[in-house]
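Narrative of accomplishments. A recurring question from our advisory board has been how the design workflow behaves on a single, concrete structure rather than in aggregate. To address it, we present the structure tokens for one chain from the evaluation set, followed by the sequence designed for it. No filtering or post-editing was applied between the two.
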């Protein structure tokens, strides 16, 4: 429901009149959040039966309270309403509650992407097609790529250039050398220098690359990234490994079931 989404995202800013004093087991600092549920989602508030302290005793004492919602209450509410509950009374457990929500809604075993293996990408790549690694969530594939290069062609045949002011000629020279000698070239953070993309395209169009030549590029998500380069590249999204924040794509996909 739209109103639930607006409450979750903080779009509802009106201060409720009620202080929900009858809900005795919650921390005083959480009363305004619970009162917002009461005033904006009265049916949900009634279904939660928060005024019945006995019902919520175990929940209130649990460290992982998101896993201790009374079963008969959970049957009355949706998975997203459960997230709203945790956000209101125990925001310190919201991340875990969101993980549970995504897993349940999408029926998947983990919110983390499968282990990323650049060697699989290498097998799909060719000397005619740049590999564009789109970085998400602060991911950095540089070490993995360097290790793959060391094991495949040797580090003496691998060059990495960080994009920035004054790198245009160095990039042109590196493309010409790598494509002729069958080396790998990695252009890092090309989103910082989008003006060089047409130059790269022009160089790639004029060379006859060695069969071992590979051009790797890394970029953060960028709406202004030239479409022509996107179309001619092998595109891969590189996300953080398990233990880092959950995939935003998975989270948004789960939320789409409710908004």
């Amino acid at each position: 429901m739209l109103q639930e989404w607006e409450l979750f995202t903080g779009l509802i800013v009106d201060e409720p009149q009620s202080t929900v004093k009858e809900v005795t087991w919650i921390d005083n600092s959480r009363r305004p959040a619970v009162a917002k549920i009461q005033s904006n989602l009265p049916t949900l508030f009634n279904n939660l039966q928060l005024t019945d302290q006995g019902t919520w005793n175990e929940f209130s004492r649990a460290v992982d309270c998101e896993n201790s919602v009374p079963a008969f209450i959970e049957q009355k509410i949706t998975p997203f309403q459960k997230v709203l509950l945790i956000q209101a009374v125990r925001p310190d457990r919201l991340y875990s509650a969101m993980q549970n929500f995504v897993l349940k809604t999408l029926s998947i075993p983990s919110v983390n992407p499968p282990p990323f293996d650049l060697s699989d990408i290498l097998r799909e790549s060719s000397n005619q097609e740049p590999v564009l690694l789109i970085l998400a969530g602060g991911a950095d594939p540089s070490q993995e790529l360097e290790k793959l290069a060391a094991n495949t062609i040797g580090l003496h045949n691998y060059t990495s250039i960080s994009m920035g002011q004054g790198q245009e000629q160095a990039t042109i020279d590196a493309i010409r050398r790598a494509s002729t000698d069958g080396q790998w070239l990695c252009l890092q953070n090309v989103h910082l220098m989008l003006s060089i993309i047409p130059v790269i395209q022009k160089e790639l169009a004029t060379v006859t690359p060695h069969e071992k030549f590979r051009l790797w590029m890394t970029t953060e998500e960028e709406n202004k990234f030239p479409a022509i380069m996107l179309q001619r590249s092998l595109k891969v999204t590189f996300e953080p490994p398990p233990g880092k924040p959950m995939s935003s794509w998975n989270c948004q996909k789960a939320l789409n079931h409710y908004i």
